[in-house]
Write a structure and sequence with these properties.
Strand content of chain B: 35-45%
Largest sheet of chain A: 7 strands, mixed
Helix content of chain A: under 10%
Shape of chain A: globular
Order of helices and strands of chain B: EEEEEEEEE
Number of helices of chain A: 0
Radius of gyration of chain B: 13 Å
Shape of chain B: globular
Number of helices of chain B: 0
Oligomer: heterodimer
Order of helices and strands of chain A: EEEEEEEEEEE
């Protein structure tokens, strides 16, 4: 049973960079069977997909965030990461890491989520 | 404004059946991309409830069922229980946006 857990600062100042890490346990992050994703949810609002990465290093980004976001993977640590530049209050959200099966479009495992607040 | 449209809320009494609709367009559901449903209990992460329109992951009761037709999909919950009170989200893939999209979510209240 794979387990995903987000970690990172809970408070980020406006215009700075949000950085989060997802640690994967109970399964191999280097598997070719899954992609690894970041999804966020502003307080009281809907879910929004942010980015996805495959073991080959291929990355996919939300068009609305492209240019500000970077997803990367560190297989030696069984982690993948998110960086979001130039944050504003609108980036305040619970950030979830998740995975979706290769060739499929649904998210079958999710982390517990990490609340990141953008405020000075 | 979400790409997939859901009713903001639905309600039903214990034991009743409710349905939640999810309306998309020709660039997502209508393009042949499947619809998936998630249940989000208060304060918790979403959990996969239905995948590829009609399939239930292991452990999901058969009270939950999905269907899809044209540019829309529906989630039906029969034999409502108090523990079903949660937010429900539909999700698909959009070719125009080149990414995964969600509905705005539906809050289910068990009366």
């Amino acid at each position: 049973q794979v387990h995903l857990r987000e970690s990172g600062p809970g408070l980020v100042k406006p215009s700075e960079t949000l950085s989060l890490t997802c640690t994967v346990s109970g399964g191999s992050i280097s598997t070719t069977s899954y992609y690894w994703d970041w999804i966020r949810q502003p307080p009281g609002k809907a879910l929004e997909w942010i980015a996805s990465i495959y073991s080959s290093g291929n990355t996919y980004y939300s068009l609305s965030l492209k240019g500000r976001v970077t997803i990367s993977v560190d297989m030696s640590k069984s982690q993948f990461s998110l960086r979001l530049n130039s944050v504003t209050a609108a980036d305040t959200a619970v950030y979830y890491c998740a995975r979706h099966p290769q060739g499929q479009y649904y998210f079958d495992s999710w982390g517990q989520g990490a609340l990141v607040t953008v405020s000075s | 404004q979400s790409v997939l449209t859901q009713p903001p809320s639905v309600s039903g009494a214990p034991g009743q059946r409710v349905t939640i609709s999810c309306t998309g367009s020709s660039s997502n559901i209508g393009a042949g991309y499947s619809v998936h449903w998630y249940q989000q209990l208060p304060g918790t992460a979403p959990k996969l409830l239905i995948y590829v329109n009609i399939n239930r992951p292991s452990g999901i009761p058969d009270r939950f069922s999905g269907s899809q037709s044209g540019t829309s999909a529906s989630l039906a919950i029969s034999g409502l229980q108090a523990e079903d009170e949660a937010d429900y989200y539909c999700q698909s893939y959009d070719t125009s946006l080149r990414g995964w999209v969600f509905g705005g979510g539906t809050k289910l209240t068990v009366l």
